[in-house]
Write a structure and sequence with these properties.
homodimer; about 500 residues; 23 strands; about 25% strand
Chain lengths: ~500, ~500
């Protein structure tokens, strides 16, 4: 899929990354995404194209998460992308929260109501829920959808991280009791964390949002936050306990076992293609993309190296090796118009975790050379133990990417109760855990004074054991420990 | 997911289908889709909700077709749903063909161009293609996307068959030579047929469209058509050979092996969630949905039948039976607030291919009773041979649904060269193969004279062996045999 050089002579450097991650992370990031062929800018303002390599990563994420959904009995469905204006306004806080970002379609007919393109689907789904739910026997109702979302943000597109249209999943569940509802809102954020850590090798923090940062219409919001190499936090997923706010607004009622009518409790939760961008920013390097093996659409590329007279022999051996590696995702690059060196650069740029070089000399010694994308380390293995060794290598890469990311994030996670120190640390690319009162006006004050520092996640409540602590800003009694930082 | 009765007392008839397929097929069809919980009308005019049962069928179709895509080296991707007006107009015939159905979004900013919601994605995808394709090495380029599509048709929604928003796949491939391009346009329509026949047990006819019915902007269109029980044809998928029409309009050029610039050849092809509706209309009956086993999200439901004292024993046996059937999609219905009879009706309504009844007497004789959804036939089997017998039963149901549908369609496929007879047959619910000149004005004349009879598919060209034949309408020399009918 990548645009390839016009001839064997074209130099790898022309298509390689031309800036260093440490020097200009924003330009470096765009180059990695574009040149590795993960995504492209669309010709429509504020939009992006997810190219096959990016979409294959999304499909791996879907595959992982569909299994989680099944475990919880959540079923996939599809609701219209059009939300009538009046529905959207039924939950006042919700409507107000989203209104600046909503795109509307032109009316075809003056008698028709104005229609929004979904910025999230609570309003359109819950009207149907109010028809479907009658009795306690219809609960819990657990539905998810994978779909496109439109939020008309004015900012320029930042590939995967900010665009007017993006892909996501949104789960919307309804329960008889608040207890079940809260439990599952908390379970789903843990599942998100597990997806990030086990599949994407991306360490994250989860916890509640402060009131200022919670979802418009929710009782509380759980968030999952990642610290990016540039020191900004990336909000990677949220689960919302909606209480009865929406069931009252949309008149969802059920006849309980007590033969009385009740409003059920609801949660909603989502993560988006932003996961892909954050993962790329975290792991990739000056040579291009670095993909954790578990999410990589291709885990191993075999590059046969030969003079013309040995062609058949080496290719046959490559096929045999591919067969020996069955169960892993392997491709052989036998294109004839590129040199092996050109191919090495290409697959490094595209982040394939393991490259295997296979030449005449290897055939003679019954060995092959495997090169790790993450460290560049090369080692020779016996062909007879290929499956075991390459599997181990992939596991090592997965573990090592996670550890490297975790060490880096731990080193950039600070604690303080001094306001000036907090600001200094954040300006040096860290996120900082501080005691905080939890009040909206105080948080607005912090944001204003610091040009955009916001609370990301509550990491713990302050109980008696911690002694009394004062809020880092207003000096009132602190309620929680909260991570503050800059954010995408 | 289905709305369930408020108590054990509620009668199955209240939730069952209240009209016969033979008496009012349109009302019968809506009731089947709604009451089985496959889909629902949305609160937005012209739109529908695909409920979990319907979406699970769509996921089975996706799973099947993603394997086909892989075989051809077609990769999934995602392009924006917004198409700038100017792009849309680059291929004049294409723009004109779609313009009545296009929905536009309200401009946020007067400097921004008007944006359409994709009615199909040629225009937005091919602009990116013109950036990505430089050399013969970049070809073939084969991309597919699964996405939502918006066509603002004025007609009222007909669940799965006609709605303002629907889901589909659209493949868009680019080739060096016309030969490859045509070959694959023809291959993909064969793959569509194989999907319909092997997975959905739905016999179809494939072939070229006449000029009047081809895609706006195509050189030719292949179509797949099914004959519905009401005698109307349903267009179930199309593949278009676009020639160089779009590569010229979007300035897609590649440097050939001859070092000259060339316009490549393109095809595009798609099928939609309409497949689901047509399949339901074809197989279902007066008791509700009938699902072919290969596409059924649940293939077997086990209903334990017991008095309270035998509860544990029967449930344990049901679990054992489920385990014995591993590899098949089995669920046990152990809900306690419904009677076995209520459950029988429920699962019949929802089209589960095989129902297994398991009671105390069965336990004693080491047998179980299996009931086929399609014929209602019941038979007792030995528990020790459960897996083999139930697998055979599922295969038989699949084959028998296909055969029944094929016999019915064959019996309603007529040939004639007499115009009056053609109209009579079509009005009696048949589709009719006739000699036809192939000319647009003649086809428009037929449509007008008959109030909506259209050509569906060219079944063969008239060669010398057939002798001379005259067009059924204009009496000029006939070029093809063409099936005419009414259509959705």
């Amino acid at each position: 899929m990548a645009k390839q050089g016009e001839s064997k002579e074209s130099k790898p450097s022309e298509k390689g990354i031309t800036v260093k991650k440490s020097e200009d992370i924003s330009e470096w990031y765009s180059q990695v995404v574009l040149k590795a062929g993960v995504a492209d800018y669309a010709p429509v303002k504020g939009c992006m194209v997810i190219r096959p390599l990016g979409y294959a990563i999304w499909m791996r994420i879907q595959e992982h998460f569909n299994k989680v959904l099944e475990k919880y009995g959540v079923e996939n469905a599809y609701f219209p992308m059009f939300v009538p204006e009046s529905f959207f306004k039924r939950e006042a806080e919700h409507a107000e929260g989203f209104s600046p970002e909503v795109a509307w379609i032109e009316r075809k007919d003056s008698s028709e109501e104005r229609l929004a393109l979904r910025p999230t689907s609570e309003a359109i789904m819950y009207d149907s829920y109010s028809k479907w739910i009658r009795s306690w026997r219809d609960l819990p109702l657990k539905i998810n959808q994978w779909c496109n979302i439109v939020r008309w943000e004015t900012n320029a597109v930042k590939l995967f991280l900010r665009s007017r249209e993006f892909l996501w999943q949104e789960g919307h569940c309804v329960y008889e009791t608040e207890k079940e509802c809260i439990k599952e809102a908390d379970d789903y954020i843990k599942e998100y964390k597990s997806l990030c850590e086990s599949l994407l090798a991306m360490p994250v923090k989860i916890g509640r949002k402060t009131d200022s940062e919670k979802f418009a219409g929710a009782v509380f919001t759980n968030t999952m936050e990642g610290l990016m190499p540039d020191g900004k936090a990336s909000q990677l997923g949220t689960t919302h306990h909606l209480g009865q706010n929406f069931s009252k607004a949309f008149d969802i009622q059920f006849l309980g076992k007590d033969s009385e009518k009740h409003y059920p409790f609801q949660n909603s939760w989502g993560f988006s293609t932003r996961l892909i961008g954050s993962m790329i920013m975290l792991h990739s390097d000056d040579k291009g993309l670095v993909l954790p093996p578990r999410v990589a659409p291709t885990q191993v590329v075999i590059i046969p190296i030969f003079r013309e007279e040995a062609r058949e022999k080496v290719l046959a051996e490559a096929e045999k090796l591919k067969k020996a590696l069955s169960g892993l995702k392997v491709r052989i690059d036998q294109r004839e118009s590129m040199t092996p060196g050109w191919k090495f650069n290409e697959w490094e740029l595209k982040g394939i975790p393991v490259r295997i070089e296979l030449g005449m000399r290897d055939l003679e010694s019954h060995t092959f050379v495997a090169c790790r994308r993450d460290t560049g380390e090369k080692q020779s293995y016996n062909i007879s133990e290929a499956k075991q060794k390459v599997s181990e290598l992939l596991d090592n890469i997965q573990a090592s990417l996670f550890k490297k990311a975790k060490d880096s994030i731990d080193a950039r996670t600070k604690k303080t109760s001094n306001f000036i120190e907090m600001v200094q640390e954040i300006n040096q690319g860290k996120w900082v855990e501080v005691p905080f009162c939890g009040e909206k006006p105080c948080e607005a004050d912090i944001r204003e004074k610091t040009e955009g520092i916001t609370s990301r996640v509550i990491t713990g409540n302050i109980s008696k054991e911690h002694g009394e602590a004062s809020c880092i800003n207003c000096s009132k009694k602190a309620k929680h420990f909260v991570i503050f930082s800059k954010a995408y």
